[in-house]
Amino acid sequence: MMSASEGAAPVRRGRFITVEGGEGAGKSTQIDVVKRVLAEQGVVVLNTREPGGTPLAEEIRSLLLAPRTEPVTDLAELLLVFAARVQHVEGFIKPALERGEWVLSDRFVDATFAYQGAGRGVNSELIDRLRQFVIPDFRPHFTLLLDIPVSRGMERVGARGAHDRFEREERGFHERVRDCYLEIASSEPDRMHLIDASLPLADVSLAVRQAVLGFLARPGVLQ
Ligand code: Z5A
Prior knowledge:
The structure is a single chain. This protein is α/β, with parallel strands linked by helices. The protein has a single domain (15-216), classed as P-loop containing nucleotide triphosphate hydrolases (Rossmann fold), CATH 3.40.50.300. It contains eight helices and five strands; from the N terminus they run βαβααβααβααβα. A five-stranded parallel sheet has the order 2-3-1-4-5, sandwiched between helices. α2 packs antiparallel against α3. The longest helix has 25 residues, at 74-98. The radius of gyration is 18 Å and the shape is globular. It starts with 15 loop residues before the first strand and ends in a 7-residue tail after the last helix. The protein binds ligand Z5A. Residues 21, 23-29, 50-51, 81, 106-107, 111-112, 115-116, 156-157, 166-167, 200-201, 204 line the site of ligand Z5A.
């Protein structure tokens, strides 16, 4: 007699990949490389970003990034970030993963520890409690951290016009963000892969390619 699982089509599992890094690290540039490498391996990925990724979450993104004269409290900023995130996770990311699709997000919860935690000084235990409350046990399967010294990243984006509320922060803020990302990378080396993003573009792209291929080669990832 056939068991319940015999003969059934294999269940394809979606994977959730995120790309993180400070200002000017080259996330947008390298997200294209990740998509290309995945496509070569037959994996189609849905591209998204945080804050954002759904109509409501994109509206919250605009609220968060717009420079304003009214001071924004750290807690208001944190809660807006998580409001956008729960909408994004429940309305877009989880349904895609449940259909067996892969999702690639430009930033996710590591950015909250880096920007609201280290940058603004919000207690990281509070952020972790909110994370557990809002998206319990939901984490990326793999994260690329594009690391670049703050001054180099700022030089790269310096020529751009209007700066958003985060880009206007002083250098110390961005240094704390960078240090926090590096701490996460050293405490979660299996999930977060550190890339030296200060190298020439071709070298960074090659390192990203190798990192993605390494992830795909892990047992069970392509099942
Ligand atoms: N935020 C938050 O506070 N809390 C949270 O939880 C989340 C986010 C999720 C929006 O992020 C803001 O939201 C973010 C933190 C906050 N603010 N900041 N800062 P975003 O990701 O949309 O914005 P961004 O960080 O400013 O990203 P960006 O400006 O688009 O930069 P990028 O994507 O990392 O870089 P890029 O556009 O690919 O490259 C920048 C330039 O460098 C460009 O001209 C490239 O051609 C060039 N480039 C790229 N790579 C190289 C190399 N290797 N060599 C030379 N030149 C290069």
